[in-house]
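My main concern about presentation is that the manuscript never shows what a single data entry looks like. In essence, backbone conformation is discretised, so a fold becomes a row of integers matching the chain in length. An entry of this sort, consisting of the sequence and the corresponding backbone structure tokens, reads as follows:
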Amino acid sequence: MKIVSCRNLVKIYQNSKVTTPVLSGINLSIEQGEFCGITGPSGSGKTTLLYTLSGLEPITDGELLLFEKNIKDYSAGEIADLRKFQIGFVFQFYNLIPNLTAFENIKLAQIIAKRDDDEQVLTALEMVEMAQFKDYFPNELSGGMQQRVAIARCLVNQPQVIFADEPTGNLDQKTGQEIMTIFQKLNRQGITIILVTHSEDNLRYCSRHIKLTDGKIIHDHKLEV
């Protein structure tokens, strides 16, 4: 099954004064179970590509399919449901609510999805080895621990795919490797990972490398893991 595919995808940011082309003629298909690492220099369009592929940003032109259905054929409600149940997001900044515990931050994602399953919250914490810290507040956790909670939050509704934007960008090398090991473990359990990274070292955890320059894919090949 194709998780996401696009043909001649174009993304342009435009206001009354400036037109800024960011992505130009992107052709791409990502299958279920892949672990894709997207790299490129600053300004190459890699984060914009992640946001458009996930439906967070509208495309300007071309064709985009999510779960083999054209993005234009989804209603706003259906897109919202995809983000609740089938798509998970992890960002460089953890975006945890400071006055909620780790458990409560994860539980909130369930509440938004109108689910109530404390056991699944604990399972998500166990998957990132944070169950013993469930009652800790964000300011009591290190950056790496907060990112683990953020990953657990995206796992709690059991997504098919995780879109991750620079998830190790705020972490030291050792902690970043620990986070990448978690992503690799999740991928081996069947979750598709589409990850933007500035670190070439992170590619050793990936099964595929996509490189962008000036809004175009210049390199796309499989990796040995």
About this structure: The chain has six helices and ten strands. The longest helix spans residues 173-188.
